[in-house]
Amino acid sequence: MNNQKQGTNLLYALIAQAKTYNDTIIMGRGDPDFDTPPHIVAAAKQAMIEHHAEYVPVEGLLSLRQAIADRVKRVNNIDVDPDTEVVVTNGGQEALMLMILAVIGPGDEIIVPEPNYNTYHDALKFARGVKVSVPSNADTNFRTSPDDVRAAITPRTRALLLVSPNNPTAGVINRSDMQALIQIAEEHDLFIIADDIYDLFIYDDFEHVSPASLPGGKARTLTLNALSKSFSMTGWRMGWIVGPADLMARVKALKAAITGGTSIISQYAGLAALTGPQDDVQRMASAYKERRRLVLDALDDMGMHYGVPQGGQFVYIDISFTGMDSAELAQKILADQHVLVYPGAAFDRERGQYVRMTFLQPEDKLREGLERMRVAMKNIMAAQ
Amino acid sequence: MSHTKNNILAQHATNRDLSIAAPPLTTRTSSDFASDEIFVPLDERIISGTAEALESGQTHYVDVPGIAPLRAAVADYLREATQATTQAANVVITAGIQESRFLTIQMIGENFDRLAMPSVVHPGVRRALGVRPMPVEMLAADAPSGYLTPVSEIQRALAAGARFFYLESPARLTGASYSELDTSAIADLAAQYEATIIWDQGLAPWAASAPSLAAYAAEGAQIITIGEAFPGMGLSSWFIAYIASPQTLIPAMQSQKQIMAICTSTASQYGALEASRLFSEKQSAYAHQLQHKQSALRDLLAQQNIEVLPGDSATVLAFRADAAPHLSEDMANGADFGAPGVWRVTVSFSSTSEAILNSVSGKGLAS
């Protein structure tokens, strides 16, 4: 594989290679193995019968926006007006793009704790914005240091990206750090772009804190979320942004220009997810908790160093001891044992000595994947 | 309000393209005269086929350019209906026609210094440009032609250096289409000047004759066609459309699609796949009915001494009414397309000529 391929293209190349094997175990991609709960599928079918041609406002159905407002109040302690402070999106990915375009113009800087989800970089590139990295590492469980953020601010800084739990590191920003980061944003008049997509997946004694829920946060924060991870609805493309009305008017105009609307069927499915039974979310969260333990135990057995996942659905593993870059190692593991893990180079181009492994496989498959990973690492190290 | 926020909002306020008004993308009522789409009941087979796919677990991410059978179905349709040489690998499935506009204009546009487009065009084009502005060269387009830019004007722009074009045929405002002769001439010019043309053919299934530029594409030219996927099958609120492009241009659009959506909703894709199986059975009959209705309406408006503009797409009809503020609630406003004083009525199955006439003439004057 061409080691110069980075970011999204690097992942494409690995996924394409993985598809050439008929027994690949995918332990990199962020797509839950669970199917969408049946009551949501049933609601979608009912929507096809009753609402298939219903008018779709750019910002989404009011009933869904109300359900979103109720959800962010209940889970995130954010008060929003469903009329003016909620926009429904084609998944978290469109939300991400819209938030960047809403607050970042050509030459504007945004502070990005690294490593981070690769498409933030791509969205920034599209907006012709400038990413200013604030690195973190496994030794501190990938903590975003407020002091490091403060030191990175320049006169061109316009925004601060806060992804908690972080993808790919699974680090969670604690309450005092979050408050300190908001204070920095206030002092320097910065927007906050908050990605809460993994907010229901928190482990041990950690807590999720939305910046918009804290004093000083709401007026300057756009918060995204989606149903992909929590309800296993990746294929439905159902997400949202909440934020202050003046910024949300800009988000809505951008949404009108990029896609114009969100499928009526997905919106009714989303409404059923948010207002229906929540048992499946709990069931999946419990499964991820057990799988996390399984994965961490196996990594400990292999002597691997990683940041302890405080949230999310993955673990970020330090592979610097191999002496290889992450793309090379991911390719070797894939070729040797047909296990796909995502190379850290896809998330952090400067510091790629990590690979991301997800918990999103059934337990038996996860065990097999971990065993294959153990064999692959043994083979790779023996060949050196 | 903070200084940073003030600046951002001020920038937004000056971006007229981003805030331009546009007709509703989906219908508000079963006889909406303004929307870009028409109301059509959904066939039970689309419901059952889509539900079956979802119930069998098609609820996960799928390939960025779309599920393979739908890409193949769109390619098959385009080959059969337009005589283009489109293969599945040339097709990207999008979350609606606006995403098709956005991806083509923004991503292919990165290779060019400006976009040449008719002065009268769907406002969604201007919106897509407004996200990340690029220089625009306006091409003349006048009412007698249904706001199609004359071939001579395209030739003039090419000679002056324009290499990237956005053209509609049928025009979204009037339904006017380029003839085979004109389409062939545009294709020849595109090849001669090695130009790249985005060709919005979304209304073509509703026209008696609307040749696709892709059918005439010659070596040297890059022709990209866009349109709604299987229109008239009741999927307008499902947001599903296509881009058909030379393969060399696909990676940039696919990469951007990944960044902004990952993929198009699987429910919409499986719905469109079912629609593809019904399209040949149902759509031509629908088009025939609407053409008849549109023709009758055209005659009625003419009897009222209302100037009707040329156009043969069955779902739209444009007319001139210079001072008619009462129309703004019911009809698509030509001013949003760049043609003040012109209005567009959407002709659908449930809209009667009487209701349209009443609306045109101010609630009752023409009855």
Could you characterize the architecture of this molecule?
With 384 residues, chain A is of the alpha/beta class. Chain A folds into 2 domains: 7-30 and 280-382, Aspartate Aminotransferase, domain 1 (Alpha-Beta Complex), CATH 3.90.1150; 38-275, Aspartate Aminotransferase, domain 2 (3-Layer(aba) Sandwich). In chain A, 43% of the residues lie in helices and 15% in strands. In chain A, the strands form 3 sheets. In chain A, strands 2-8-7-6-5-3-4 form a 7-stranded mixed sheet, with helices on both faces. In chain A, strands 9-10-13-12 form a 4-stranded antiparallel sheet. A two-stranded parallel sheet of chain A has the order 1-11. In chain A, α1 (7-18) packs parallel to α11 and α10 packs parallel to α12. The longest helix of chain A is centred in the last third of the chain and has 24 residues, at 279-302. The radius of gyration of chain A is 20 Å and the shape is globular. Residues 1-5 of chain A have low confidence and may be disordered. With 367 residues, chain B is α/β, with parallel strands linked by helices. Chain B folds into 2 domains: 23-41 and 281-360, Aspartate Aminotransferase, domain 1, CATH 3.90.1150.10; 44-277, Type I PLP-dependent aspartate aminotransferase-like (Major domain) (Aspartate Aminotransferase, domain 2, 3-Layer(aba) Sandwich), CATH 3.40.640. Helices cover 39% and strands 12% of the residues of chain B. In chain B, the strands form 3 sheets. In chain B, strands 1-7-6-5-4 form a 5-stranded mixed sheet, with helices on both faces. The radius of gyration of chain B is 20 Å and the shape is globular. The N and C termini of chain B lie far apart (53 Å). Classes of the chains: A alpha/beta (384), B alpha/beta (367). At the A-B interface, α2, α4, α5, α8 and α9 of A face α1, α2, α4, α5 and α8 of B.
